[in-house]
Amino acid sequence: MASNYRGYRPPQGMVSWALHRLAGLGVLVFLLLHIVDIFAVGYGPEAFNDLLFIYRHPIFRAGEVILVAGLYYHALNGIRIILVDFWSKGWKYERQMFYAVVALFLLSFIPTAILMLRPLF
Amino acid sequence: MVQVPTGSGPDQVSAAPRSARRAPIPRVGRERPTGSNFELYSWYFFRVSGLLLILLAVTHVVIMHVVNTVDEINYDFVVDRWNSPFWRGFDWLMLILALLHGLNGARIAVDDYVRPRGWRVFAHSVLWSAAIIFLIIGSIAIVTFNPEAVVTAGR
Question: Global pTM?
């Protein structure tokens, strides 16, 4: 007999929270790296341009797309958090707002990812 | 965590008088901190800097990765960009806000996961040191950048 159990489904608030933290810490790691590489600009064109091979590497370029995904999600869910905190009806619609975040994320991220990877096409 | 019933809101109970029917608003999201001023300011800083960073960081990503790609960005691109005080100011504000917002987030994560007191002190020290060091090297990069000085020093 088939069971009605469809597996553990974490609540939306938990998923949004976990993704928010993961995306935030990921963007932070990139930010620290980015501050270090921009410091090389003060050492002149050779030093800086030599370092840019990192950014042109295929793995790094894939990483950049993931970085943008993290940034967009963190930004959109951040708006949701602010609405929950400051909009008097925010608590009521936090789940619907999570679905809006997912929809807006896909609408903004997919075109951005295509444009970022356009040299590949 | 979130305990908002679906469909059947608190207004369903209708026998009691209106004032008594109003259920307390459930706590959703991270509670506004009380007790410590630092935590309250940190709470507000996340939200204010977050809103500004949406503008700054998303603009930055669109300019660097959508309008241009990493293939077009090189030393001359940076010289051109930092010729303008507007973009230097833009980048500096973004640096300060992003670094403090990000490291403050890491601090919250440390408080959630690092329990032993010694490790906690260590992790907080690392984060505060990183904040100071990266603010300094980032500011030096943005504020003191002078392409003419670089060229003459290289000759």
Answer: 0.83
